[in-house]
Amino acid sequence: MRILLIGASGMIGSRVAAEARARGHEVTGVTRSGTAGTAVADASDPAAMARLAAGHDAVVSAIAPPRDGSEPSGPLLAAVRGLLGGLREAGVRRLVMVGGAGSLEVAPGARLVDSPDFPEIYRNEALALAQALELLRAEAGDLDWTYISPAIVIEPGERTGKFRLGGDQVLVDDRGDSFISAEDYAVALVDELENSQAVRRRITVAR
Length: 207
Known about the structure:
The chain is of the alpha/beta class and 207 residues long.
């Protein structure tokens, strides 16, 4: 499979690239800066996205909202819309997006990000990623998208290949913890790329 990976140098993107290549897939990495031998492009530019996506079987978006103190939803949604436009122009239907955990439900109709003890420092980022999910649901019905939310805590760790998949609800273990290593998240994401079991919906992955 030929995969275009937007945001290839980040914590999650770099691990997705490594996992996909280890399975024999061809990965074209894209970043805004061109680091680590990646192509340089702005995801909000649909023409640039179309040029890069042409000839690929799937696109993975590991774009993170800006963390420079600015309002993050505008730039993130512009990037998602640019990416959607580029995929349509290039004739590529498959899109897998690295999502956030904030939009997961902790109770029916109650999102994690709306919980009173949700860390304020992450709130705007979580809301931006929640809006990206709603954008996919509203505007990407012609594409084969999947949005993958991690557990509440995701960080570098061990690749075990052992995890659980869920839908719109937070997954917790027997101790009430919600965790996934970035390595195992990458395994789940590449599994979905290969198997397409969750087209046009959100899933979540946790240990």
